[in-house]
Amino acid sequence: MATQDRLIESTQELLWERGYVGTSPKAIQQRAGVGQGSMYHHFTGKPDLAATALRRSAEQMRAIAAADLAAPGTAYDRIAAYLLRDRDVLRGCRIGRMAQDPDVIADPQLRAPVEETFDWLRGRIAELIAEGQAAGELTMGVDPADTAAAVVAVVQGGYVLARAAGRAEPFDQAVRGALGLLAAQRTVDRTA
Amino acid sequence: MATQDRLIESTQELLWERGYVGTSPKAIQQRAGVGQGSMYHHFTGKPDLAATALRRSAEQMRAIAAADLAAPGTAYDRIAAYLLRDRDVLRGCRIGRMAQDPDVIADPQLRAPVEETFDWLRGRIAELIAEGQAAGELTMGVDPADTAAAVVAVVQGGYVLARAAGRAEPFDQAVRGALGLLAAQRTVDRTA
């Protein structure tokens, strides 16, 4: 792998594990196995490298979520595919965890990929819910944008509950809870 | 205020703002306006002081949530009181944000108050939902424990979405979404 890519990948991993505040330029260089001079040859500094790494993580997360939400079946099935995807729950979300980092939130360059990823995700799920309502698959009883925000929040909050508990179960519970509430919005009972 | 209390309060604030990894003993001493010797007179070190501060934050959060969940009205009303409480959304949750901190999660002493707070909160909301179902106020269509986990996750994930966006609106959307889904579980339409 090229030096530049090794630096970006190492930064992606460290940001996921330790956050921005907890990731030093030295730790990045050590994980990438490159010297200080090489890092500053490719990037102006930690903010520049972190912004590049975050943009790449955001693209990867978006591609995975887009595939889930394009699964076969109804709007409910697609949202279920997103919610039930196999996850390394205790690792948390590589994008969501950035929102806790005060230095990320304070820097427009670093916050942008985090904001854009969630904007896109909420918009895509809202679209699916609106399509399901228009097709008569889902009741008109809920607001698509609000419901989509709740679905995305359940996943992000599920990570928080699981990490707090040191086990994946609370994440799975939250997802089952969201699916139970969403299932009640279906106009036809498909459990039979 | 006594020196010991000043140290605890300053640590509570800094943990909320900067997390555990981002809070240095020096920053705590500066905010509390006490010297290093005084800090180490009262506490063995940062982990000891942080554990005390986190236990106090957990007690405070629990007291506030318990009051919301004892609001007048039905189970739905009480959960709505919890979800709709006026919050400084962009500050995030003082307990939930700790779950992103790898050093908190790795230390049983630091993780315990975080885990216990969410266990209690999920349990209390599950109890309310089960009571609402037993009283015929809510349908039997959802599992109380799973639904409670989803409710708590919506709040924690709502903070993530709001901080990512740099504005409170995505939190409010997620909460409205959860309330819309919960409202559909009521056996009697109270919106009329």
List the helices and strands and how they pair.
Two copies of one chain form a homodimer.
Chain A: H1 3-18, H2 25-32, H3 36-42, H4 46-68, H5 75-84, H6 102-105, H7 108-134, H8 144-165, H9 169-183
InterPro entries (chains A, B): Homeodomain-like_sf, HTH_TetR, Tet_transcr_reg_TetR-rel_C_sf, TetR_C
DNA-binding region (chains A, B): 24-43
Domain HTH tetR-type (chains A, B): 1-61
Key phrases:
homodimer, transcription regulation (chains A, B), transcription (chains A, B), TetR/AcrR family transcriptional regulator (chains A, B), mainly alpha, HTH_TetR (chains A, B), 9 helices, 192 residues, elongated, Tetracycline Repressor, domain 2
Q: How would you describe this protein?
A:
- The structure is a homodimer of 192-residue chains.
- By secondary structure, chain A is mainly alpha-helical.
- Chain A has a domain at 56-183: Tetracycline Repressor, domain 2 (Orthogonal Bundle), CATH 1.10.357.10.
- The first copy, chain A, has nine helices and no strands.
- The longest helix of chain A is centred in the middle third of the chain and has 27 residues, at 108-134.
- Chain A is elongated and about 65 Å long.
- The model of chain A has no long low-confidence stretch (mean pLDDT 95).
- The interface between A and B is large, with 59 and 59 residues.
